[in-house]
Amino acid sequence: MKLNRQDKLLLNEKALSVRAETLKIHGLAQGTRIASSLSPVEIFVVLYYGGILSYDPANPMWAGRDRFIVSKGHGSISLYPILSDVGFFDKRELGIVCQKGAIAGAIPDPHIPGYETINGSLGHGLGVASGVALALRARNRAERVFVLLGDGEMSEGSVWEAIMFAGHHGLDNLIVILDNNKACMLDFCKNVIDLEPIEKKIRLFGWTVKRVDGHDIGKLYNALSIFKGQSTGRPKFLVADTIKGKGVPSLESDPLSHTRNILPDDIEAAIRGLR
To answer: Residue 178's domain is classified under what CATH number?
Structure first.
């Protein structure tokens, strides 16, 4: 399946808007991880606005929903504007992130409508998702389980245990998206633990693997729509090549962008410079 030109333009406009809203949130809540949250924006936009995920904001625990487990929780502040926009919670919450009484903090928790699991400790999301996928299959359910992983998170042994488990059990209702922004907390990933050749490695464990530009709305949509419709007897793994701090040049080129903040006085300039 492919997006038509008009839909692609609309989704790209959404992505630009989500980046701007994410920067505004960071200006108010400096504890949020801004660089990590800017890289998966197009992934979130395609999932929620592109019709890939089945969900019901009026009933977040609807049995017929696709499960979306955000394993790199710290890097999903950009999901807040989307969840509020589609109706999971009031948009006024975006102005009080990390404040007393707010539902949303620097690290998302499952009390936020639209989040499935606890998302603080890295390396756990894929294991949880594999169990959910296995349970859904045992009940003959048609829902899919999507997972967002970070590439720094791929250093965790628990991730590879889950990769082996899902491959062994042929969980073809499980779809992993790797936010491959190539930078972890202390350096570029290639200087810490190099994942490449990541496609070859994942295939060896019995997965179907594709690789796309993670900022290309059309390519993301095409790959994810195909994955959701496939029943191949194998779990699916999408390597989405992204840029950490996407849209903010000073973050894009910094190997230590993970822990950098954009000061509140500089937020408006960063928003004006978005591309």
So the answer is: 3.40.50.970
